[in-house]
Amino acid sequence: MEAAQVVNSNGNADGDYQYEIISWFDSVSKNAAMVQTETLGQILHLNYGVEYLKKWFGDMKIQDMDACALESLYASLVPLASHADFEPFIQRIADGDTAPILTQQTITTLSLSSGTTEGRQKLLPFTRHSSQTTLQIYRLAAAYRSRVYPIREDGRILEFIYSSKRLKTKGGLTAGTATTHYYASEEFNIKQEKTKSFTCSPQEVIFGGDYKQSTYCHLLLGLLFWDEVELIASTFAYSIVQAFASFEEQWEEICSDIKDGTLSSRITLPRMRKAVLDIISPNPCLASQIEAICRDSKASNWYGIVPRLWPNAKYVYSIMTGSMQPYLKKLRHYAVSLPLVSADYGSTEGWIGVNLDPCLPPEDVTFSVIPTFSYFEFIPLYKKKQDLTSSTVGYIEDEPVPLSQVKLGQEYELVLTTFTGLYRYRLGDVVEVAGFHNGTPKLNFIFRRELILTVNIDKNTENDLQLAVGRGSEVLSKYGGELVDFTSHAEVMHQPGHYMIYWEIKGEVEERVLGECCGVMDASFVDHGYVVSRRTNSIGPLELCIVETGTFNKVLDYFIGNGAALGQFKTPRCTNNHILLRILNLCTIKRFHSTAYN
């Protein structure tokens, strides 16, 4: 398998179109303050008179107001809100109320969040605007990527994408994940045409409904089109790591299918099976090449398998920030020198920023806010001096400021006003302004604001947890072990309460090493409230629970069974979900308690 010698320098989008969309973004980012004021005006004029806004504006004739005056009035009258504030309104829409509650446009589709952050899925409005902004950010990001990593026109993407089941609400609305709605939209097909890159798998694989069967077919078809694949992609890095973990187990079966032009009996869904069989034909020569590569790669623990199987691939593309960072080590193991390019910054609520610097490693990536997508406000956050009487997150909040007033180096919580009917909605993401692209800020994602680990006066975020686990896993790696995945739980049913961290690992590691990992993690939580509590034994020793192989696949299966899509799945980094805890505790095979504070 040798790389193609000629690469079309026009990249993965027409040269004129690239110039056009980059010029558009340069224009709106140079005038970001004015564009934001206009965007808010558009949202409020489009949704004038809806029930939610009428609570605050009453019968004011906002159509006749100056845009800047309307911006000030909006911030003074409409309060900051969370999903809990919108939930009753969204539920009425889901139940069939067709009155203009949040938007003047009738909402016929609702998005389901993954549910992994807060333990339950949230319903959110989804409109044509949602698909259009997804298409716009994909095209914009592709134009910037093609400057650094030009790819052949009409190449293919090995794209590990998955839909979830769509269901009907009581009122007859369609509900499903935002990614599922997008893959079913006209915009998804337009994206492929405009970027001149086509996914290897047909719709029957994407919409199969069984992620294990879809993954097998994605891999099989990606290998059949090996010389056409220009990049490897997924929504989240987790999906790529999951796919190659499956490949390690299934490569011989895949080679057999390529050799004979058959399809494994594991593919039982009729539409998926027919669609794939219509594409494949016997190719013994290709099967032999793949088999030789796999036998050799298996001996080196699959190091560098991606560029060996897809020598024309230019990069791996996925969301790699936040809770995806723990998977970067494994992704680099598979990809070796192939660049990892972080995808753009968004949420189920809406898109926020685009990665304009694809050559930066994921750890250093920033996202330039797109000022036409939503109206953005930023709550300044200042770290408190340690307060040992409070169990709230240690930040002092200032009054929200518009995009035009953010300061370099300052941390903020994001607030969105969207075309889909969310007004001054607190997203819960903490970001830092790392720079500016013209007049729009470049954001560095820090963490989700929700406090995830607390027993009493301790305050540890997802970021704190990932740092502690990272230090513990460094010890594990030194002795030949590998951390597959992890989560945590604050045990408060028994006194003193303590942190429990669940690890799934690969490799044989001595118990003394795991005990050392446990102690290193315990000592790595440097929050003052935690340190003082550990020293006084008001928080007990950290407990490391080693779970059996495949435990986190059971966690995944639980979420998939409850309506999540693999492409949108994120392992919950902290859980109080009693079903998940039951799975984790039943699968625990070893327990270690820290001696860090003895």
UniProtKB/TrEMBL annotation:
Q: Where is the GH3 C-terminal domain?
A: 464-578
Outline the extent of the GH3 middle domain.
Answer: 369-448
Q: Where on the tree of life does the source sit, at the highest rank? A: Eukaryota
Record key words, sorted: Ligase
Single GO term (MF): acid-amino acid ligase activity
Q: InterPro entries attached here?
A: GH3, GH3_C, GH3_M
| A cellular component annotation (GO) from this entry | cytoplasm
Query: Cross-referenced PANTHER family, in alphabetical order?
Result: GH3 DOMAIN-CONTAINING PROTEIN, INDOLE-3-ACETIC ACID-AMIDO SYNTHETASE GH3.10
Q: What family classification does the UniProt entry report for this protein?
A: Belongs to the IAA-amido conjugating enzyme family.
Spell out the protein name for this chain: GH3 auxin-responsive promoter
Q: Which organism is it from?
A: Gossypium darwinii (Darwin's cotton)
